[in-house]
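Many introductory courses stop at the sequence. We go one step further.
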Amino acid sequence: MFKVWEQHLSPFIVLSEYEEGVLLRLGMYKKNLVKGINIKVPLLDYVMVTTVTKDTYHVVNVNVTTTDSKSICVGAIVEFDICDIKKYFLDVNEAQSNAHDITRGIIADYLSDCEWEEVKKKTTLTQIKNKLKPQLADMGMNIHQVMFGDITQTRVFTVFKD
């Protein structure tokens, strides 16, 4: 009940130190909201708020064959924060979900052009981070670090054979 009051009927909204948001008036962008008290027009304004401090997302394992024909499985963890709240909410549909998908694609694309020994080097993580950085920036996200949580060689077995 309080959330309904705060979202639709209250003339103000209070954001915590770690939050930012956007204010939409009749569905159109009006302004960014920052920590502290923010004034809004009841019933006409809609507020979208999220945490903007450092966070992580886990990338589902990516299966790739390297240039030296090694089958590998890599899982990554990406540390980020939100640097442009308007882009994060309004320029992208579900930015964090999109970031996950884009990260998987960049990892698969980059590692498929590497040999197994290159994959294990820290420079590989730096290269992936550098390719990911502009993509996330377009969604209002700033990348701090990419880490491999899992990195293994795998074996492929044929279960049924004609």
